[in-house]
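Practice problem: predict the structure.
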Amino acid sequence: MAGIASVQAQGDTGASSPPSGPAGGDLSGTFPNPSVVGLQTVPISGAAPATDDVLKFDGVEWAPSAGTSTSVLAGLTLFAAPVAGEIGYVSGNNTAARASATALASSRAVGVYTGTANALSQGPRVGLLLEAGLNAGTAPAAGQPIFVSASIAGRGTNVAPSAVGQVEAQVAILLDASGYNNATGSVQDCVWLVTAPIQL
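Answer:
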């Protein structure tokens, strides 16, 4: 038609267009479907990973490997198995250590008390943590939490029933350093903790 010019668009097609051409950096192949062949310029192994594998740097490349305790706990020094009367703990700097359970109790460690079997029950004595000047077997003041060491989970009596009534304490074993793992066996040293503070 006379007087109308025809123009053909060329050049930049806009930011929404997919990239094309060869890929670079940690990518290989060509766009629009390149392959990832590295992380931060370190090559990735072509080996297929197994279930639960993680990518681990082996000194040359990233390769699939099982996550072991050695790699996960790097820097954590594990202690030898505790003996009777000891408990294990991990300090703030990821160093594992052992300590005397009796020493922890006598130093008024919060929530810890050790009991020794007697001839009648063959279980740990029922006792009250020596905290804030309280002595084992004495009734705490109203509102004070009670931590018990008991041979029967659920119904430990560590205060005089005539004074404040029976303490209904749901207890849970934390550690049995003598090698037994039940509440009614012949246990020499146990650490117990009430699952929730008891308010009198």
